[in-house]
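Holo model, CA2. Inputs:
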Amino acid sequence: MSVNSQNLSILNVLVLHGPNLNLLGKREPEFYGSVTLNDINELLSETAIKLSSQVTCFQSNHEGTLVDKIHEALGQYQGILINAGAYTHTSVAIRDALSAVEIPTVEVHLSNIYKREVFRHHSYIAAIAIGQISGFGALSYQLGLEALVKHIRAK
Ligand code: CA2
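Output:
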């Protein structure tokens, strides 16, 4: 871990985006808005600088690829910010990987999953995450990153 000019350690945060989030801003804008995944990643990079940290953003449509990425995060990242997309509601494998690496994790969602279909109300990740932010669009990611970095620094 390196330090900045204020002698604050630079925290490395892995941002994981799950399936279909690569379509953000390109398909169904009436539902998920016009902000692209690239816009979100840029917003997070700018926010990270203000928090004396840096983000590495990764998207995959494949459960096993996301599991591999979580394993590879061991020793490389101090925090994980994740929107697992539909895998939030189905993947014991992603939950087990996050639980196994013991890297502080914040779960985020663009939409308020509790205002949507009942099958979206349950998250496999929520119980092993520090917390969850849901329903604020791109701001969910920004708030999630701030909460994650502040939580790690407070420890
Ligand atoms: O609200 C969220 O962030 C979700 O994680 C989004 C997932 C959904 O399955 C979760 O229940 C809640 C879906 C992401 C799909 O993204 C698309 C973007 C553009 C067009 C189509 C899908």
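The mean pLDDT is 96. Residues 138-154 form the longest helix (17 residues).
Archived with the compound record.
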